[in-house]
Amino acid sequence: MFRCGSFDVVGVGFGPSNLALAVAVAEHNTTTPGERLSARFVERQSTFGWHRGMLLEDATMQISFLKDLATLRNPVSPYGFLSYLHDRGRLIDFINYGSAFPTRLEFHDYLEWVAGRFVDDVDYRTTVTSIDPVPDASEFLDIRTSDGATMRTRNVVVATGLAANLPDGVVPGERIWHTRDLLTRTDRPVDPRRVIVVGAGQSAAEAVDHFHRRFESAEVWAVFNRYGYSPADDTPFANRVFDPGAVDDFFGAPPEVKQMILGYHANTNYSVVDPELIESLYRRHYHEKISGRERLRFLNVSRIDDVVASRDHVELVLESMLDGGREAVRADLVVYATGYRPSDPCDLLGDLTGSCLRDDAGRLSINRDYRVATDPALRAGIYVQGATEHTHGLSSTLLSNIAVRSGEIVQSIAERTSALV
Ligand code: FAD
């Protein structure tokens, strides 16, 4: 079954990255109606949703509201956060709120507000299963979806986001979760007496905080191999690593300098925690010590092993990496806050992977315009948002640069499309 002819661009996934792309296409079509691009998006969720399982009350964004879907590319965009606030009648209230960091709940509402303007351009509840070459028409790609349909397009933008990381051998279930499902799962009627949270990053600390507040008589144990939580570097000079200009610097840098930048500034994003949350957890821990009723425990330089879930509890072994001591423990719930990894675009590229060029380390070669470098015989464009940290730097998996990045992708597609005419 062919769906509605062919498109200039099909976006795989409709999270913030491709939502920003939809905005950039809409604004391009308004400003240059003679070079209109047709776009369609495919999203496996039933409706727009951005990390719904982690929309914890009070959790705030880690970027300024000005790094929304459009403002850095077009400060007068009708799709910017300020237009949203104005539309919702909260512009003045937000100014009085006095912070550049909205809650994740509010930012989600903003993203939904923008996504609501593109409902006719998205196939929800639909998973892209493969992206295939078109025999005898190398300027096209066929996008195959779970409903058996095929969409023909000149360009595809793969923005399939992050996949949850679990240690080898861990199988999620009713009593073993990844933080990705934190809220969706806790809405179920469980009343745990002991919860173990594994990990030392932002999601881990948020999960510890959440369980401790939500289950007032539960013990919450944080298990991690660090000595303590490390603070996220949100200081202004370090923050420049997320600037649009930093993408040019990173892209042009020699491989060893790229590695150096990723290493030096990993603590802006990876395995780090908002300092206010660290302080708050420590104070609560200390107050519990005073009261003599310690529900919150921090088991540092430790790991868990031999995790076996049964119907009503989880048995596991807690191991101290300091002295090798092992202790058998029972918990009602084990929650892994073990992070995410960018999903691999090659999972969808099937026969096309042979046409994609690779760097010396075997990773996809990606041009500055986010287009995968391919054999020149393939004239269709494969673009990637997200899985480009090795080429475009630390902002790749984040929201910081999505307004500018999506504009650059649209510009590249528009230029290649008009060159064909
Ligand atoms: P995603 O948001 O993951 O969206 C990808 C979409 O693709 C999903 O909707 C998925 O369902 C869909 N999809 C995947 N495969 C297919 C398929 N085969 N077919 C169809 N659809 C598919 N970054 C920041 O800069 N600031 C923050 O404050 C911030 N907070 C975060 C909080 C949490 C809890 C987490 C987990 C991450 C956070 N991040 C933050 C980083 C995060 O990666 C980005 O916020 C953002 O999600 C990237 O958007 P995306 O569209 O690239 O990916």
Indicate the radius of gyration in whole angstroms: 23 Å
Q: Count of helical segments?
A: 13
Uncertain stretches of 5 or more adjacent residues: none
Number of strands: 19
Q: Which class best fits the helix and strand makeup?
A: alpha/beta
Bound ions, cofactors and other small molecules, one mention each: flavin-adenine dinucleotide
Distance separating the two termini: 28 Å
**Sheet with the most strands?**
5 strands, parallel
In spatial order, strands of the major sheet run 4-3-2-8-19
* Helical residues, percent: 25-40%
Strand content: 15-25%
Q: What sort of overall outline do the alpha carbons produce when their principal axes are compared? A: globular
For the residues shown, what is the average pLDDT? 95
Summarize the structure.
The chain is α/β, with parallel strands linked by helices and 421 residues long. It has 13 helices and 19 strands. A five-stranded parallel beta sheet has the order 4-3-2-8-19, covered by helices on one side. The protein has a five-stranded parallel beta sheet with strand order 10-17-11-12-13.
